[in-house]
Amino acid sequence: MHGESVNEAHSVRFADLLGRDERLPGNLSAADLAEADTDLLSMQSWVWYLKWLAKQGELPRDEFLDALYEDSGDSLIRLILFESVMTNPVIVRRYSEFRGQWTVPLEELPPCWPQHLVLHLVSAEPTRARDIDAGTAEQLPEVVELAFSLLQVGNTAALAILRGLLAYQWPLRGEFIQLFDTALVQSSGMETSELEQWRRRLGLL
């Protein structure tokens, strides 16, 4: 948000604060965080906290991450939240065997918050208890945003979920793929051959 070096400095300070105040780790126990707890810290502090949790090999519950994601309301912050979760060692280990380019059905991928969130948005029958009050058509821009967040993170876990999303059969799959592919062409700046390689890698060709 302010540059990698500045964010890293803030993360170090945040970790130092956690280390000096013995009460903070207990009060911010990842396993105990609930949806209502998102107002305990600023959004930027939660980003630092997620990065700190990654070093501990821990993740908050999906319900908390859902609430944090919705509260952010900003594409850049949502991308950073996504990246913080997708690069957490817990998720990386779960997806360590998905280094190939084959597509695994979205619902059969190892469970994690991004996979659950994507499934919730595109499933006719929600897979999550938390209700996102939006019709299918209204969800399309959010699904496209999620897809590009996964693409920008670009690690094994993110690309496995993205391939599963692109292959998932839902009412607006055609419109979604068209929007995603058009945006990929317009924003990537890649040469034609490289673009085709990415399309094949993502199962679009």
Question: Summarize this, please?
Answer:
This protein is mostly helical and 205 residues long. It is 64% helix and 0% strand.
Q: Could you name the ranges where pLDDT drops below 50 across 5 or more consecutive residues?
A: 126-134
For the sheet with most strands, the description reads:
none
Number of strands: 0
Helices and strands, in N-to-C order?
HHHHHHHHHHH
Radius of gyration: 18 Å
Beta-strand proportion: under 5%
State the separation between the terminal residues, measured CA to CA: 35 Å
**Fraction of residues in H or I helices:** 55-70%
Which overall shape is indicated by the principal axes computed on the Cα atoms? globular
> What structural class should be given to the helix and strand makeup?
mainly alpha
Helix tally equals 11
Residue-averaged pLDDT: 81
Structure, described:
The chain has 205 residues and is mostly helical. It has a domain at 60-201. It is 64% helix and 0% strand. The protein has eleven helices and no strands. The protein has helices at residues 4-20, 23-27, 43-56, 62-72, 75-86, 89-94, 113-122, 136-153, 156-167, 173-188, 192-201. Helix 1 crosses helix 3, helix 5 (75-86) packs across helix 8 and helix 8 packs across helix 10. The longest helix is centred in the C-terminal third of the chain and has 18 residues, at 136-153.
List descriptors:
mainly alpha; 11 helices; 205 residues
Topology:
Elements: H1 4-20, H2 23-27, H3 43-56, H4 62-72, H5 75-86, H6 89-94, H7 113-122, H8 136-153, H9 156-167, H10 173-188, H11 192-201
